[in-house]
Automatic annotation (TrEMBL), chains A, B, C, D:
Coiled-coil region: none
UniProt record similarity statement: Belongs to the Whirly family.
Keywords: Transit peptide
Keyword set includes Disulfide bond: no
Organism expressing this protein natively: Prunus avium (Cherry)
Protein name: Single-stranded DNA-bindig protein WHY2, mitochondrial-like
Keyword set includes Transit peptide: yes
A GO molecular-function annotation: single-stranded DNA binding
GO terms for biological process, alphabetical: defense response; regulation of DNA-templated transcription
Domain of life: Eukaryota
Length: 194, 194, 194, 194
């Protein structure tokens, strides 16, 4: 496994941080969780995400961490982000209370708009909370270089938040065609064997 | 090795799923199998694939898993998919009974056609079975963002389904030029040594 | 961990070297350091970089390693480098004594300028030292092929110098949603659970 | 380490093979070798390559493995290959006896020429051996999809043949800034600390 020898660290904090005048933006991947099946296999439980955190500035290089708001990008939203061209824009809408009695009361929208000259993007989050009668807005200008880091890091993270690195890593350690075949779902063999 | 410490999971299920109105599409990589040579080396037995599974809808958000059909993309077909531009299309034909007495009786064709406006692709599978006198058709519209996930995940998976991650991982753990050289096929040395 | 079994090597030297007539340029990644938190987690201490080293030539294929100068590319500067188009240029400025009493006394500037015909880049480092009254200049022409190696290697290295490979690798080895949830910061759950 | 648990395999054979009418082409990465320094570090000894092997056809789907010729792509040549556009071409020349008394007697040239319609490439190897008075020529047409596999697999392999995966993997397992700093070459600290 990838675990660090000699340490018992449970979590690693390595967000990519962009500190700007009005707000700070940080990105970090959150891995999926897995549930063990009776058959012995693992199935993805909660999907992984790339978590964006926005924090408002309250002075020069000072940020109010209590007022942080988060936006969790799904695999498909990460797909949007990494395929964004220098003149493209995109917008995502989340309802954190979806499928609860509070559905529709809080609306989050994340917008990524390219600058007209291709020099970067304006990333903004708006959170409208009808329960608290609040509306918060965070704006972080992101340079083309910073966005290149976001794209490369998100492309690296994407297979991991999908759990595909586990598909790779949990390969049977035994060797030989025979052992492998015995585990193949029979209905797949006709196609696989072509 | 990559195996998960503390678990004995044999398989990890982490397909990328696209649920649409008429059918669902899922992708997952299937690793190659290896056979041990008498010399102690490993050689790829069955090649890895990226498995596509199509399932027809039978109501709102309900799919008939019994009627699932699969299509296994080879490394070269994955190469086609990941190099597809926003206005490109491609089509693959498989005969799952090739080289058997039923050759030609079942024909599968997978088509990936870009929308005219570059907003995504129409992915469809047709399975014609002359033995059962059936013809099935699955159509899944895929957005540009979903296709970006497919491309990134397939690019990640490609070296793994080819077995190249094993080439990397099985590097001799010994250190020093001498030990390495003794294992090099002599005829390669003139080129390698240049 | 990735460490090599059977060896106790602490460091691996594998710079990518470009030897040219007037100077040599080498690149190698330097990983971030981590600090252990009381909570048991790890946090990035010093960020990782891609270290560029310039060495002046003092004869045919002879370089004066004593006169070497270094320039450490941050994650965002690596983002600039890997997103550089064939006709693009960029320039970075560093003050190695920033935030000390010698601030402003030594200025380093790295310039990457594309050739007009797209055949490669001119990479140059200038180091002006007001304390020593010196000005050094290193110029290394880099072909398109060499720059492609630099871009691919830096793209590979970027998630590692950011520490994102650790985020991936230190995944909890336990299985099951329950255990995972207990570690999630409560305020994140509403977004994560959407 | 990446080694396969429960096996003692020394080598993994997983070449990417392209069989065509007149010749077959296979690609496989060859990892660098490392030499242990007295200081305990590892330094790259022989650089890694991507090995191309050409085999002439002697009938339908029959190849004469005795007449195989090889061409080892260096990191920079791999950089050329992976940055080749759909209408680009490149050519490399090797002298396997360079720096020996036979220098210049055997000349190998590898040519990758794009088809005019962008549908793929013609890959050919010519080996002129003045000692044996022979000239061999191998021609393999490569489709765009096959070339996409070559590019993706070579991009994956590049950091590994450079030894950069080892730079990543051999990270100190200890935690904390103090321990790390004690191993940093002092002259680097001023830049690194900026």
């Amino acid at each position: 496994s990838f675990s660090v020898k000699g340490t018992s660290a449970d979590y690693v904090y390595a967000p990519f941080r962009i500190y700007k005048g009005r707000a700070a933006l940080s990105l970090s991947p959150v891995l999926p969780t897995f549930t063990k099946l009776e058959s012995g296999g693992l199935v993805v439980g909660r999907s992984g995400v790339v978590m964006l955190k926005f924090t408002p500035a309250i002075g020069e290089r000072k940020y109010d961490w209590e007022k942080r708001q988060v936006f969790a990008l799904s695999a498909t939203e990460v797909g949007s982000l990494i395929s964004l061209g220098p003149n493209d824009s995109c917008e995502f809408f989340h309802d954190p209370s979806m499928q609860s009695s509070n559905a529709g009361q809080v609306r989050k929208s994340l917008s990524i708009k390219s600058h007209a000259d291709g020099s970067g993007y304006m990333v903004s989050l708006t959170v409208v909370n009808n329960l608290l009668k609040t509306k918060e807005n965070f704006i972080v200008p992101v340079t083309a270089a910073e966005f290149a880091v976001m794209k490369t890091a998100c492309s690296f993270a994407l297979p991991h938040i999908m759990g595909w690195d586990r598909l790779m890593s949990n390969m049977p350690t035994g060797v030989g065609v025979g052992r492998q075949q015995s585990k193949v779902v029979p209905q797949l063999l006709d196609e696989w064997d072509r």
